[in-house]
Amino acid sequence: MPTILLSDAAAGWLALLALAVPVAIHLWNRRPGRTVPMGSVRWLQAAANRRLRNLRLEQLALLLLRTAIVGLVALALAGPQWQQQRPARPVRGLVLLAPEVLHPEVLPGLRPTLDSLRRRGYELRQFAPNFRLISAAAWQQPDSLALLRPATGAAPDDYWLRARQAADSFPGRPLRVLSGAALPHFRGARPTLPARLTWQTVPLPDSSAWLAQAGQFSPDSLRLLVGSSQEEGTTFRIVRLARPRSSGPLAVAGLPGLRYQTGNLAKLQQAGQPEVVVQTEPLRVVLYADSRHAAAARYLRAALQAVAPGLARPLEIRTVTPAADLSTSPDWLFWLSDEPVPAAWLARAQRGGHLWQETAAVGAPVVGRLHLTGLLPDATAPVEVLRLDTSRVPASQAVVWQTGAGQPVLLREPAGRGSRYLLRTHLQPAATSLPETAALPTLLLHLLRTESADAPLFAARPAPTERRRLDARQLGAAPWQPVRRLPAQSRRQLPPPVLVDVRAWVVLAALLLFALERGLAYRRSIVSPTLATA
Predict the structure, then answer these.
(1) What DSSP designation does 502 have?
(2) b/e map 347-370, b = 16+ CB within 10 Å
(3) What are phi and psi of 187, to 5 degrees?
(4) Interval 250-261: pLDDT, tens
């Protein structure tokens, strides 16, 4: 039902005080009485006194006109608006499809449910920047939908950020997001999302294999490091094969379309994947430890020697002094001392090396275990953490290892083209049981394999090939539901009411009444002199 709203009611109420003006004029400005000839004027004074005491309203029509004019002016000052509610309309929901859902192996199983939603008024849009509409023509052509997927090797999109943008871009509309739960798409803590946004995870292909590194152990042999990601974690395997004499295809299980290209730097290429340079130089490691860290150095050296067979390149380990010559450009520099790291070691890290050092503090006593989920593929003995540096972690450092309670154990910080690792405990049995377990060589192997120019996994965000899944409780999503369990129909909602400013019409009405009042007053002024002279 239409209603009237006042945008400035206070001004209108103050203006209504002017209604006292026409009333006062009518009370005090009475018209002259009729002239009556008479023989005596002795009663005139008494009659005048009675006239002052007998105040009453006259010319009511004129008074009502004047008060109506004042009231309309007051109403115009209050800013009247005509509010009219538009009829309710159905709310069209949106289905946002993540790029991985458009995969040829995934989309056919979802089509019946999505077709049912489309018939119920839902729109299909991409869960990607700009949320582009998927037209009916494109939906009927699977080949065109495949073109909507991002290029292989592209940085993974941040789905938390994309969900907040969707909620802001489509206010008041039900949103249904269909995506996978791969870890690279979910960065940081889960944001607060509106209740009208529901998330459903879609089953995706189980695994993905890629070429991580390649090394030439001898003039006639190659050693390839092949990575494979599943929901449980990422694993690597070594593939040994003869080095081709010329460019051509290479047959490697799990890597279709792999080709070898000769040149000054031989390369391996796979369709849709970045090329991998065949490394001919060994993986060089330098190690320095003072007397206080001698035990940690023995554990570390033994673990490094144990992982050598699992690397794509030969491993070269040297024990050096702080003033050692670094002209050989070592890939890893292990500094086990409480003394400051030499400037030459820091400069090497800036140029592409990786510097490892332990915390200078002894660490506070703690009771915890190293969280190995996703780091080790197989179950191992628990790693106890007895002493740990619990100081605040700078924002520039990323957590690589942590305890089950979330306390950082190993941190990584970018340093130019390289990186710096800080172990917040000591590789000694008094601080942690890590040196006495099989977990130390496995964890070091994971670092040496992945922290390279070809496949950095410990960067600011996970690699696109990472296939571990986010926990469903963190995602707040339900598994994919068949069509029979979807809502029957979109609800309806009232659109925003229409507001029309009627101030001009109020002013026009006041002008018309003013013209009528002037005409009536003029007529009264003509009649009054006639009566007075009669």
Answers:
(1) -
(2) ebbeeebbbbbbbeeebeebebeb
(3) -110, 130
(4) 888 878 888 999
